[in-house]
Amino acid sequence: MSLYLIFDVGNTRLKWAAVESTKQPSDQQKKLWDYSGSINTQSLQSPEHRAELADYISKTLPKPDAIAFSCVAGKEAIHQLQSLFPQWQDIQWKQLSGDSAFDGMRTLYQDPSKLGSDRWSAIIGARCLSKTNSLIVNAGTATTIDVLGSNGMHYGGWILPGLSLMHQSLEANTAQLPLAARDASTQGFGTSTNEAIIGGCDAAQIGAIQYALDLAKQMNVPIEKIWLDGGNAKTLMNQIQQANLLGTEKIEVSEGLVLRGVWAWLLKNI
Ligand SMILES: Nc1ncnc2c1ncn2[C@@H]1O[C@H](COP(=O)(O)OP(=O)(O)O)[C@@H](O)[C@H]1O
Ligand SMILES: CC(C)(COP(=O)(O)O)[C@@H](O)C(=O)NCCC(=O)O
Question: From which residue to which does the signal peptide run (predicted)?
Fold first, then answer.
């Protein structure tokens, strides 16, 4: 039996997971990782935090047989990530990029090398779980929305500021708006500044998903499955469910679609 260690370095959080070779990326269960965790991506910049992370990972799991990653947080972060385990120098690190080939899949991106590796790996992860026309929504630092056809074609997508970025940008660029805070009462049209911001930013995110569904239908790629992933997935799902929008039966909150995609790609490249 082999063990694979996978990293997904986003602009806010660094996620990792390790999985044994007895499992498959097409396995539907969410909790398929034998080990997993996350920290702030910024921690990579600190030698102390790097040492803590490396110590924690190397003490909680056996030596992996292969390591693979996606990183959209810049070259320095990649360098710092790859410096974590000097004791495992014989293990080759495999980096998935936006233009990494995957059997049966293709992107219409004009220059696939510019496609975010986390977007491409989430698309691969979604393909492992379902061969239907799918929308992949990764609600993280940015919110990305991508269309994947049942034929394996990525038709492109959108990049929006994520929920926190939207809130922060309103606070930073206006005189009167505070940093909004979500509370249980936020529903429908806002009747306070806080509610108006929270509801407005939710509407921008959910409205973009609705628009993507409409546009995909016009393109003859009617969406049968929506994967909602990332740090804000559950928040958005709650809002979607409470307002009974988008045909909730086809939406699923997925956990670690990027990690799943990197793992699937690694299995084809070792
Ligand atoms: N514990 C948390 N730490 C940081 N961000 C969180 C946390 N919980 C929810 N979030 C939200 O999730 C976003 C980060 O989600 P994530 O999918 O990890 O993003 P990325 O892949 O871009 O690093 C943040 O911008 C924030 O809005
Ligand atoms: C859009 C992103 C910033 C999202 O990053 P994240 O929110 O996951 O940290 C990332 O996928 C990226 O840098 N993409 C490159 C540009 C593109 O995909 O076209």
Answer: none
